[in-house]
TrEMBL record:
Domain ATP-grasp, residue spans: 120-316
Cross-referenced InterPro entries: ATP-dep_AA_Ligase, ATP-grasp, ATP-grasp_carboxylate-amine, ATP_grasp_subdomain_1
UniProt keyword ATP-binding, yes or no: yes
GO molecular function terms listed in the Swiss-Prot or TrEMBL record: ATP binding; ligase activity; metal ion binding
Protein's UniProt name: ATP-grasp domain-containing protein
Example of a GO biological process term: purine nucleotide biosynthetic process
Keywords: ATP-binding, Ligase, Nucleotide-binding, Purine biosynthesis
Length: 408
């Protein structure tokens, strides 16, 4: 008997279609699509494989997802899965599942992950190391928090996406600027946190019905906040050849406790954490969805699998298997330098090819004339793969030290 899966795909972006490809590759799966797009725009390769379509105006509106789910239940007789990987959709998806009686992450658990202030409270109640934080709705709230923890502090939206819209305040003047930038009011509060200094890592975990079955940990080089504050920085994400290096193996117990405290069921989660100079560890935050910054293809390179297919199989059939790690991998992000809004030149490509070309397995190079990127991932990237961690580190160093994207 096939599994009836509804996949929520607001737009046909590359990542969303990559995930749809993974779903379409699974046997015994009947796929229905909930999307902003009309049925006529569905790419030809999915004709016959996607057997249901429901157009909505807003995939973040739980009521519209519920209406779509009811239509599929009426037509198909049942719906077994309602899934989507974008972080912003996790709460409306969970509300719709609860209302429709579809198995999966519930609203209460989704809010534990999406509402960062609630997340930190849950983790703190479980005795886990997290940065001190507070939900602030005014300048006086912010000043009171500063009196408690001191400068610097970090401010971000309570339901933020990774490091986006994250601002650091180091004194009263930058605090005022941050409050204005985030437009903090009682009806639009921000999350304030003490600033944690240390190496920043990620920790990816596959859990099945609450039981951890697979882990991976990566390095940010440098950390995302430093990248956000310095637009000229070329940065990297690196997966070592060792699936869990000693520091990550030590952190694993904290990761498992945190996911249990938040109530995770079946998911691939993405946690960010800090390793301080004294060896202590602090949990930053965790998302109940696949990681970004090219970690999905990088994990696939390390293990010789398609990680999107593995994620689809996990969410549909609640099973996950991956061969042992055989390689290290990394991503170098090329970010424009200068005040302009258009790429005027890309320098150092020949040198980068000489230093790192043998290890590059995928790339999207910046092109002269393209507009400045709106996100912190930059105007282009290169993925590298090597048999040792040292090879990958050297290749990444060669890329970011050679390539220069000039904006004008």
């Amino acid at each position: 008997m096939p599994v009836h899966v509804l996949y929520v795909a607001p737009y046909y972006s590359a990542n969303i279609l990559q995930c749809l490809d993974a779903l379409a590759s699974l046997p015994d799966v009947r796929i229905g699509l909930i999307t902003h797009e009309p049925e006529t725009t569905l790419p030809e390769r999915y004709r016959g494989r996607v057997v249901g379509h429901y157009q909505v105006r807003d995939c973040l509106d739980a009521e519209q997802l519920i209406a779509a789910g009811k239509a599929f239940q009426a037509g198909w007789g049942r719906v077994d899965r309602l899934i989507g990987f974008l972080e912003q959709m996790q709460t409306p998806l969970s509300i719709a599942r609860d209302k429709l009686g579809i198995p999966g992450m519930t609203e209460a658990v989704a809010r534990n992950f999406r509402e960062k202030n609630r997340m930190k409270a849950k983790l703190r109640e479980a005795g886990l190391p997290v940065a001190r934080q507070a939900l602030i709705g005014s300048a006086e709230d912010a000043r009171s928090f500063v009196r408690e923890v001191g400068y610097p502090i970090v401010l971000k939206p309570p339901a933020g996406l990774g490091s986006r819209a994250t601002v650091r305040a180091t004194d009263d003047e930058s605090l005022a600027s941050a409050l204005a930038e985030l437009f903090v009011t009682p009806s639009n509060p921000a999350q304030a946190e003490e600033f944690v200094r240390g190496e920043e890592h990620t920790f990816e975990t596959v859990t099945i019905q609450g039981k951890p079955v697979w882990h991976s940990s990566s390095y940010y080089l440098p950390g995302p906040l430093q990248v956000l504050e310095n637009p000229w920085i070329q940065y990297c994400v690196m997966l070592p050849r060792e699936q869990l290096q000693p520091h990550a193996q030590t952190f694993r117990a904290l990761n498992v406790r945190a996911l249990q405290a938040l109530g995770i069921g079946t998911a691939l989660t993405h946690m960010e954490w800090f390793l301080r100079a004294d060896g202590s560890m602090v949990i930053s935050e965790v998302a109940a969805r696949p990681p970004g910054v090219h970690l999905m293809p990088m994990m696939g390179l390390c293990h010789g699998v398609d990680m999107w297919q593995k994620w689809a199989e996990l969410m549909v059939f609640e099973r996950f298997e991956a061969p042992p790690r055989q390689f290290a991998a990394g991503a170098a992000f090329f970010r424009g330098q200068g005040p302009g809004q258009v790429v005027r030149a890309v320098e150092g490509l020949a040198e980068a090819q000489e230093l790192a070309g043998a290890w590059v397995v995928d790339r999207k190079l910046p092109k002269v004339g393209q507009p400045r990127a709106s996100g912190y991932e930059g105007e282009g990237y290169a993925l590298v793969k090597g048999e040792t961690t040292e090879e990958v580190v050297n290749a990444l160093r060669g890329l970011v030290s050679s390539v220069r994207v000039v904006l004008g």
